[in-house]
Amino acid sequence: MKTYLVAGIVVLIVIAHIFLWRSDMAPGLKLTFTLINTVAWTIILAPIFLIDRWLDAIKRRNDKKPR
Q1: How far apart are alpha carbons 56 and 51 in whole angstroms?
Q2: Beta-carbon neighbour count of residue 41 at 10 Å?
Q3: How far is Cα 12 from Cα 64, in angstroms, rounded to an integer?
Q4: Which of 13, 14, 26, 66 is the most exposed place for a label (fewest CB within 10 A)?
């Protein structure tokens, strides 16, 4: 379920960038907005992805330990 949610968010971000680049703004402004948006989404999504992987690793480690 969470994979579909993240994939959906990424697809929406890509679609938004396509519409941005098809607009009649100046190319320099388009590039600036794209870079700001890319950095912002990286700051938002990277920790979510990394924490999820960390929690999966902890879960796998705990599943392997005999109780």
Answers
A1: 9
A2: 13
A3: 38
A4: 66
The answer to whether 45 touches 62, Cβ cutoff 8 Å, is: no
The pTM (predicted TM-score) of the whole model is: 0.62
pLDDT at 58: 92
List Cβ<8 Å contacts ≥24 apart for 7-14.
9/45, 13/37, 13/41
In which element (H, E) is residue 26 found? Answer: none
Chain segment 32-45, per-residue pLDDT in tens:
999 999 899 889 88
Residue with tokens 């999820």: 52
Residue 7: helix, strand or coil by DSSP?
A: helix
For the segment 1-33, what is each residue's pLDDT rounded down to a tens digit?
A: 777 888 898 899 899 999 999 999 999 999 999
Under 8 Å between Cβ of 4 and 54: no
